[in-house]
Structures are given as structure tokens and as C-alpha cells.
Amino acid sequence: MTTAPVISPPRPPAALRMTPGRWVALAIGVPIALAFIGWSGFSLVASIGQASFPVSATIPVEHGRLVASTGGGDITVRQGQVSGATARLTGTVQYSLVRPRLTVTHNGVSLHCLLPTGNCGLNATLDVPSHTAVDLTSGGGNMQVSGIQGNVTLDSGGGDAGISAIDGTADVLTGGGNLTASDLGGVLMFTTSGGDVNGSGLFSPHVTTGSGGGNVTLAFTKVPDYVKVSSSGGDITIVIPRGNASYAITSNASGGDYHSTVPTNDASRHRIQVDSGGGNISITEAS
């Protein structure tokens, strides 16, 4: 006769011993986890609870200069049919949960967003009088500026910027977006932290461009006197018009190739300086 084996009942799990290290982990980890859960829930509510209101306002122009700040929305600036003393702003403010404060004074327009998360920005068109300088700042939206008969200073926190047909100096800074420029004849200063710079139809005598990593392309319709381009990692392409002009060129291609087919003369008053941290450099004449 076979005797059945005796099966012992399972032992209860041993109690987890709370060491000082585990207490510290709980003290730090639990508040962080709760804060993360709360912030995620608040961000979700903010993304759902969106609203908007229309904007129509006149902005005084003082001493021929207009200053504006637009939060994170998109804005289009153009020369419009307005009087010489005021500019007109039309558009929509979009926001989450808490209505932001929009102030319009003789110093320009400013949007004060009251929440650190969610959507908040002014999407608008700004019509400015002729011969008005424009100083525009955006927290992250896109800018499109054209037909301004004056100097233009643009600062985009992260959005794209496009400028065309500006009579005066153009000083443009983008935090990471792309910059597109065309039909410009004034002094140009372009800086982007990471986006591409694409300039076409340029007849400016003086151009300075810096890119944190994007490609830089500049195509001229008139012989420039001074061009300085630097890129931390992208390619640099410069196209100049065909003709008898020669250029004094200095270049540094740290990791890429260098290619040039333009006439050179170290004594020339037309100077081109290019510096690429890793991309290729190409300087050619237009076909």
C-alpha cells in the first residue's frame, strides 16, 4: 500500500522590513507621484476647457515705432490702410480655463497668460501705417511680416518667421523655428537657435546670419558688400549673381566639404566669411 505524501501548507509571506532607505524612498517618491498625477489631470482639463474671444483694437504709434507682444499665437503684420497715428489689430485670443489679460496701450499690445499650461495665444493681423518701425515679440507662435516701410525687429520664442519686402533693417531672432526671407534690400541680421534660414531675392549690401544647427541658404540678386554666415552643424549655400565682381572669401568647414566657383581676390571690397561646424559650404554664381 502506497502512502500519500504529506503536503505542508504554504508559509505566509514574510513582512517587508522597512529600512531607513525605504522610508526615504517613500518620503520622496509618494509626493512626486501625487504631484505628477495632479499635474497630468490639470493639463488634461486645461486642454479640454478651451475658449476664445475676438479682438479689435487700435494701437497708437509713437515716434514712428510700434511695439507688440503676442504670447504664443500666430500674427501677420502688413502695411494697411490706416492713419499715420494708429495701427489696427484684429483677430482672436484662444485660451484654456482662465481668460488672459490683453492690454493695449501706447506701448503696443501685450497678452498676459495666467496659466503655465494649456493653450494661450493671440492669432491676429496687425495693419500698420506706412513708414512705421515694428518691434514684435512672440512667445512661440509664427510671424509673417511683409510690405513694411521701416525697420523690423522680430523675436520668436520658437515659431517660424517669414519676412518679405521690408524697406529698412531687418533683425530677426527665432528660438528654434525656420526663417524665410525674400525681396529684402536693407541691412539683414538673422539668428536661429536650430531652424533653417532660407533667403531668396536678396539685394542687401550687408547680411549677417547665424544658425545653431540648421541649414543656411542665401541667394542674392545684387552683389553684396559683406556676408557673414555661421552654422554650428548645417550646410551653408550662397548664390551670387553672375558678373565681373570678385570676392575676398574666408571659410572654415570643420567637418564638411568646401566648394566655390566664384572669382576671388583678397583685396576685393566684397567680402564673404563662412564658418560651418560640420556641414558643407557652397559658394556659386547663379545659373
Description:
The structure is a single chain. Mean pLDDT is about 85; it is low at about 40-45. Strand 5 (about 100-105) and strand 6 form a beta hairpin. Helices cover about 10% and strands about 45% of the residues. The chain is mostly beta strands. It has 1 helix and 23 strands. The strands form 3 sheets. It has a 12-stranded mixed beta sheet with strand order 1-4-7-3-9-11-13-15-17-19-23-21.
Helix and strand arrangement:
Layout: H1 20-48, E1 50-60, E2 65-69, E3 75-79, E4 86-96, E5 101-105, E6 108-112, E7 120-128, E8 133-138, E9 143-146, E10 152-156, E11 161-164, E12 170-174, E13 179-182, E14 188-192, E15 197-202, E16 206-211, E17 216-220, E18 226-231, E19 236-240, E20 248-253, E21 258-260, E22 271-276, E23 281-285
Parallel strand pairs: 2-8, 3-7, 3-9, 8-10, 9-11, 10-12, 11-13, 12-14, 13-15, 14-16, 15-17, 16-18, 17-19, 18-22, 19-23, 20-22, 21-23
Antiparallel strand pairs: 1-4, 4-7, 5-6
The gist of it:
The chain has 287 residues and is mainly beta.
Spatial gap, N to C terminus? 105 Å
Question: Which strand-content bin applies to the residues?
Answer: over 45%
Q: What is the tally of beta strands? A: 23
Average predicted confidence as pLDDT: 84
Q: Tell me the major beta sheet.
A: 12 strands, mixed
The assigned structural class equals mainly beta
Share in helix: 10-25%
- Strand sequence of the main sheet, in spatial order? 1-4-7-3-9-11-13-15-17-19-23-21
Write a concise keyword list for the protein shown above.
nine-stranded parallel beta sheet; twelve-stranded mixed beta sheet; mainly beta
